[in-house]
Design a protein that fits this description.
about 50% helix, 3-stranded antiparallel β-sheet, elongated, about 90 residues
Length: about 90
């Protein structure tokens, strides 16, 4: 059986530690951007091919915006929805 160890901290040190932990957690949960560039979209989908990304876009599988001729942005939530739509339940 593992032995229990007790750590004592001054109250100021304890609250400083709590503030640091909360700060780190908040950094990890920052609001994500609504629109992603192609490379970030491919990373989120776990693909390496620009052709596959274009195919998903052309088939209407994912939502995108093209504010400028050669600048395409991908809607983050539509990428997540696509992944969820194709997820499989375990047996």
């Amino acid at each position: 059986m593992d032995e229990m160890k007790v750590i004592c901290l001054e109250s100021n040190a304890f609250y400083e530690l709590v503030d640091q932990v909360v700060g780190k957690m908040m950094e990890q949960h920052k609001e994500q951007p609504k629109w992603l560039v192609g490379e970030d979209a491919m990373n989120l989908l776990g693909i390496k091919s620009k052709t596959t990304l274009q195919k998903l876009r052309n088939e209407g599988e994912i939502k995108y915006s093209q504010p400028f001729k050669k600048h395409i942005l991908y809607h983050r939530q539509s990428l997540l929805d696509f992944l969820e739509k194709h997820s499989k339940d375990t047996f």
